[in-house]
Structures are given as C-alpha cells and as structure tokens.
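Researcher: We plan to redesign the surface later, but first we want a full-length starting point. Tokens attached.
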C-alpha cells in the first residue's frame, strides 16, 4: 500500500465514520409498572372553593386519612360574634348580680360567613367534611383531626375562633359560668399563661396555645379571626402540581411544605380530580421505533389511548428509576380521542434513568381551582443518556512511530491494527458502524473488529485493521 493511499485513508477514517443508533429488539418488550398512589404531603397548599368570588388557598393540616384543610389565611380578620339581633345570652355572676357581665352569642355571624364558601361542580364530590369552625376536641393534640399544636396554629400573631366555649380557671373564673368566653387557637408564639378550661370541664394545657375571646364584655366587643376547616377525599385526588407549572415547559417537580401556618398563600397547588377521562400509555418511540433509551435533548413519541373532555391536555410525568418519586412534570399538548402518538421534547431533562407516565387532564389557565383528570397511567422505563463522542487514535502496528502517519518503508500486513475507535461519553448502545468512501476506494482495505452481523457493537473501544484480501495488499 502506498504512502499516499495510507494518508488518504487516515483522513477518511477520522472524518468519515458513519455511526447509526441501533435499537435492540429486546427494547420492544416494554415492561409497564403501576404508578404509586399520589399523595399530597402535609403542609402543602391547595386551591379549592371560593369565598366572596375569590379562590381560597388551604393548608393540608393532616393527610393520614382524609386531607384536613385549614385556610392558609383567615377568610376574615377581626370579626366579632356579638349581634343584638341573634339572641345573645346575658352572662351573670352566680351571686345574682343584676348588672350583666356581658353576652355570650351563638355562632350565627361566623356561620353566615362560612356558608358563603361555594364549590364548583367538580369539587362537590371531593368534599368529605363541609367547611366549618372546629371545636377544641377536633383540633386538640390527640383529637379528632389528628393535629398537633404546630400542625394547626399560625406561627406568629394570628388567633382564630374555635366552636367551643370555656372560661379561665383562675382569676375571675369563680362564680362565672363556664360558657363565658369563646375559645380560640392562639399562635405558636403566644405568651399566654392563663390556664383555661372547656365548658365540659376539660383543663387545657398551656402548651396547646388556646386563648379566650369575650363576645361582649363591659361595653366592648371581643374579636378574633375566622379560619374555616374542611376535609377532602384523597382517593379522588389523582395529582397536584404548583399553579406556576402552566407554561408547557419541563419543571423540576416539588411540593412546598415550608409555608404551613405562615399566614400566606405561597406556592399553592392545583388539584386534579378523578373523572371519566382515560389515558393508557402503550409505547415510547424514537424515530418510530420502540425504545427505552434516548440521547439527551431528543424528541420522543408516546403512544397513548385516551378520550377527550373540556380543553384536555396529555401531560407527562417523569418518576425516578424506582418509580416512587416524581422528578419532572410538563403540561402537554391537546388530547385526541383514541390511540395517538404525542410528541415529547425532552430538552432540559437531565441525564438519568426514569419511569415515564402520562395524565389526561382538563386545564383552565384562568383559574387555579381543581380540574378533572384521568388516573396517572402505568409507568414505562426511559433512560436519557449523553450523546456519543467518537475519537479515532492512530495506532499502527507496522513499525511506524505511534501516532504518526505510516512510513513508506514499513510493512502494513493483513489483520494489523491501524487505529482505535473509542466512545466516551457513551450514548445509546449498541452502535452500528460503517467505513465510507472519502472520494476513492482506499476505504475497502479496512474493517472494524468486534462488530456483530448487523455491524453493531456495545464495546466502547474497537480496533480498525487491514482487511484480509484487501485490494491494495501485496503478498498479504
């Protein structure tokens, strides 16, 4: 072989490898995994119902059975219970004094406000406990709702009414009725040191941060804040995501629980409610071939059987490889009836092993209230890998100096290595290789060792050698 031909080959070999992605047939057997039951964590905020035509944000106070809802901010600050038209009771001392101490009033004023909370059609079937003012036995540590003081009390400064009466256990309590005051949940930073008891004789530990509100006392009205409670059925909540995840971009999925009882509405979540919508994930494809592995920033197709509703979207959820934790969410494109392919651009998703699912959800950009959706589909595996980088290194066995072009006076024999192909980083494997022409026929003298019958290999290092019977060989 001449020095000119060898140099021409070296240029051709470095610049003209053709490498094809090869999809192994075993990838066509897709192994589905059921999605885990979705759960909103305690401390998350969700949007539900309206009060005075404004959407309400709620804290999830407990998620052990039903989701216990507590409005993230009082719906009214500093409201009084006293109203002379609703039949308040005069409170007198046991000594029979004629001068009233004050008035104890029913909850009518507060209940009227609670009753202004309205649900849309989607939300009605979600409610397991309509909105109400809780009692001390509801919220107390170890009580009906399973809340601790830190679960239910605002961190700073805000008290709210309880639907329970009580009295001070010291000071003015002697001779005064046990229903003298309305109890209130004080904040976590409440310095109150006055021991209280309920009207049923239960002593309230100071650690519970319970305070007292007089409806009307000695010419002045007592006030507190109104914080409704409620509960929803977790089995009907298919999914929830931050209300900011509406731009059809990939979002690193998380639910913020750091704002529990902070008297704010930050990072609320939009709930998806179970309906008759369907989404059955059948396949993941790349260039119309089933796959479980694609290069970073690729575009794939997912095959889904679905039905349609009002403004339905086929959204995508990426779990970790174990299929236990949601890592990414993307609001998808318009849903179509029947079995269809949906294009998914993976740009922005980190390299790694995932499980992919879809959810068919109605969406309304004008509101953060719950919408209907399908269940989250079964999961299919998808690995995202770095693109291949191929390197060719000259490594002649002919006697020429390693890394240099071949020397005219040195032998190049059949089977001898002329260079090495390496793959680093490694993308989707296996790879299919061919050696192509660079304008002449010198490429016919070479072959790549270690390829299978399809010209493919999983190896990250392959030798390029002189082919036996190469046309330019002289005497082998």
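Model: Full-length starting sequence:
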């Amino acid at each position: 072989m001449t020095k000119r031909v060898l140099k021409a080959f070296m240029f051709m070999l470095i610049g003209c490898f053709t490498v094809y992605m090869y999809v192994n047939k075993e990838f066509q057997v897709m192994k589905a995994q059921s999605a885990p039951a979705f759960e909103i964590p305690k401390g998350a905020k969700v949007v539900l119902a309206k009060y005075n035509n404004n959407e309400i944000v709620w804290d999830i106070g407990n998620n052990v059975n039903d989701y216990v809802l507590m409005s993230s901010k009082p719906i009214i600050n500093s409201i009084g219970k006293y109203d002379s038209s609703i039949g308040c009771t005069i409170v007198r001392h046991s000594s029979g004094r004629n001068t009233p101490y004050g008035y104890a009033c029913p909850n009518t004023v507060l209940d009227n406000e609670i009753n202004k909370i309205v649900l849309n059609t989607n939300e009605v079937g979600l409610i397991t406990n309509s909105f109400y003012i809780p009692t001390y036995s509801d919220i107390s540590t170890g009580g009906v709702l399973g809340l601790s003081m830190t679960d239910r009390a605002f961190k700073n400064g805000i008290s709210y009414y309880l639907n329970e009466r009580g009295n001070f256990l010291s000071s003015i309590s002697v001779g005064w009725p046990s229903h003298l005051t309305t109890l209130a949940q004080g904040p976590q930073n409440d310095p109150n040191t006055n021991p209280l008891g309920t009207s049923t004789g239960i002593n309230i530990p100071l650690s519970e941060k319970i305070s007292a509100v007089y409806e009307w006392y000695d010419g002045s009205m007592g006030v507190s804040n109104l914080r409704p409670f409620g509960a929803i059925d977790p089995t009907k909540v298919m999914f929830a995501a931050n209300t900011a995840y509406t731009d059809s971009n990939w979002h690193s999925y998380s639910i913020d629980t750091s704002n529990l009882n902070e008297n704010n509405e930050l990072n609320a979540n939009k709930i998806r409610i179970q309906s008759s919508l369907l989404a059955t994930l059948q396949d993941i494809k790349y260039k119309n071939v089933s796959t479980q592995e694609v290069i970073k920033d690729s575009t794939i197709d997912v095959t889904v059987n679905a039905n349609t509703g009002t403004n339905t979207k086929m959204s995508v959820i990426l779990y970790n490889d174990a299929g236990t934790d949601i890592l990414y969410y993307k609001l998808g494109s318009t849903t179509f009836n029947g079995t269809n392919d949906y294009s998914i651009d993976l740009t922005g998703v980190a390299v790694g092993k995932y499980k992919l699912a879809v959810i068919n959800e109605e969406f309304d950009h004008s509101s953060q209230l719950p919408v209907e959706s399908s269940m989250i589909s079964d999961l299919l595996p998808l690995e995202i890998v770095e693109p291949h980088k191929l390197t060719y290194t000259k490594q002649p066995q002919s006697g020429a100096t390693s890394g240099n072009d071949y020397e005219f006076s040195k032998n190049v024999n059949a089977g001898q290595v002329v260079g090495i192909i390496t793959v680093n980083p490694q993308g989707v494997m296996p790879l299919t290789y061919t050696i192509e022409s660079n304008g002449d026929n010198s490429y016919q003298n070479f072959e790549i060792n270690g390829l299978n019958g399809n010209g493919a290999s999983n190896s990250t290092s392959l030798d390029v050698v002189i082919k036996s019977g190469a046309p330019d060989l002289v005497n082998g």
